[in-house]
Amino acid sequence: MKAKILFLVSAITVTSLSPLKAADCEVACIDVYTQDGQLIFEARKGSGPKASVAPKPVVKPKPVVKPKVIAKPKVAAPKKKVAPKKKIPVAVAATSLSDRISKALPTTGVAYQPNFQPLINVPVYFWCDMPPIFRSKVDLIGEVIDVTMRPSFAWAFGDGSFKSTTDPGAPFPNGKVTHTYSNPGTYPLLLITTWGGTFAHNGVERAITGQIRKVTALTITVVAANTRFTN
Questions:
Q1: 47 Cβ contact partners less than 8 Å away, ≥ 6 residues apart
Q2: Residues in CB range of 107: below 8 A, 6 or more apart
Q3: Which of 21, 186, 205, 212 is most buried by a 10 A CB count?
Q4: Residue 119 gets which letter from DSSP?
Q5: How far apart are CA 149 and CA 161, in angstroms?
Q6: Of 199, 201, 179, which is closest to residue 189 (Cα–Cα)?
């Protein structure tokens, strides 16, 4: 008898970084989020004013004094006054830096014991080789970002039974992820690994937006034990 399983895998939450102006990120704007099954790091910062313009000098006009005329002397032509050269405003352009990288998280394989045709009514031990924690340090535009991610696991054993845990499991006798099948058959086994975590920048820790889900699938064949009658 083959068991049927209906399983729904949630879509990965995608959150994009909203555009940041350099003027708003004179120190640094850091964000870490998930997109298309990967971890995305973004960093932006700006420095310097947008533009600095020298102010126009204020020139006060000199009062005109009419001279007293006693006789009509010969008046020499007045010399033309040369206006001083105006200073040209100097604009200083604002500078900004930005960078973006992506990182893939570890994938996993699934194993079980006994590894060949387990028996019904006998516990089967399951485990995966996923590390219990994932750490990464990234340097973007001179800013250091520390990321810590931890996995959680959801097992679907194919006969309608499920188990959620943060334990990756282990072989006999230390394994804590076990399942006992009641009927012989071939069952589709699914392991859904969900990653979530935090990132730290300049001593401030924040949650990473979104989660990453990885699905590992295989089949397991369970058989019935032969029965023998003896005197």
A1: 22, 26, 94, 95, 96, 97
A2: 214, 216
A3: 212
A4: B
A5: 27
A6: 179
Look at the domain 22-50+92-222 and name its fold.
Answer: Immunoglobulin-like (2.60.40)
Q: Which two tokens stand for residue 115?
A: 């590894």
Exposure on the CB side of residue 207, measured as CA atoms within 13 A? 6
Q: Give backbone dihedrals phi and psi of 22, rounded to 5 degrees, phi first.
A: -60, -35
Q: Which SS3 state, helix, strand or coil, does residue 110 take?
A: strand
- The structure tokens 């000199």 sit at 62
**CA–CA gap between residue 177 and residue 126 (Å, rounded):** 6
Query: Distance of alpha carbon 148 from its chain centroid, rounded?
Result: 11
| Contact of 74 with 15, CB cutoff 8 Å | no
Length of the chain: 231
Pairing label, strands 110-113, 38-47 = unpaired
Residue 144's identity, in one-letter code, is: V
pLDDT in tens, 58-110: 666 666 666 665 656 565 666 666 666 666 655 545 567 899 999 999 888 99
- The structure tokens 């397991």 sit at 220
pLDDT score at 145: 96
